[in-house]
Amino acid sequence: xxxxxxxxxxxxxxxxxxxxxxxxxxxxxxxxxxxxxxxxxxxxxxxxxxxxxxxxxxxxxxxxxxxxxxxxxxxxxxxxxxxxxxxxxxxxxxxxxxxxxxxxxxxxxx
Amino acid sequence: xxxxxxxxxxxxxxxxxxxxxxxxxxxxxxxxxxxxxxxxxxxxxxxxxxxxxxxxxxxxxxxxxxxxxxxxxxxxxxxxxxxxxxxxxxxxxxxxxxxxxxxxxxxxxx
Lengths: 110, 110
Fold this sequence. Notes:
Shape of chain B: globular
Shape of chain A: globular
Largest sheet of chain B: 6 strands, mixed
Distance between the termini of chain B: 41 Å
Structural class of chain B: mainly beta
Oligomer: heterodimer
Strand content of chain A: over 45%
Number of strands of chain A: 11
Helix content of chain B: under 10%
Number of helices of chain B: 0
Structural class of chain A: mainly beta
Number of helices of chain A: 0
Radius of gyration of chain A: 13 Å
Radius of gyration of chain B: 13 Å
């Protein structure tokens, strides 16, 4: 099992460009999450999806949209990227209490 | 509001010395507390949760509701313990939300 996979691994955008970060899990988990990790701030929850067809805002949802395409996939979209969105983005899935994390996407917005 | 505070960004100890990574939280209800660890070039992974009261890799953590703390301890640090450690809280009224601290980098010197 691959666990949680994320694409791309690295991305550089210009201010105003859009992009979608992809996440997939093969563990049949109901819950999926998107976090951003910034130096000195730990992980902050952007959006989560408790089950297929539902999404909810986390701590820092502004500037992002998400889609829970099916049980396996949960994508994060930046419609108009800003330098403040430069970060490392982690996707995670969980069943019960343990979260399983992807390898992360390092995004730079110039 | 839920908050998790890890006051130390970096903790350096010598091999064989005791180690304590501090975690304080603010939450008005009954939370679940976790420690996650990220070793170099590996994914973030669960180390332990307070409910299980287990010792994992020699680490233990006790939830102190009076002091709202969940410090991680190990009596004799090993070089392979060097990693980034994150304390995390899951609110009792929303099992799909996790709040992470800013992390403590543990460096165990030979």
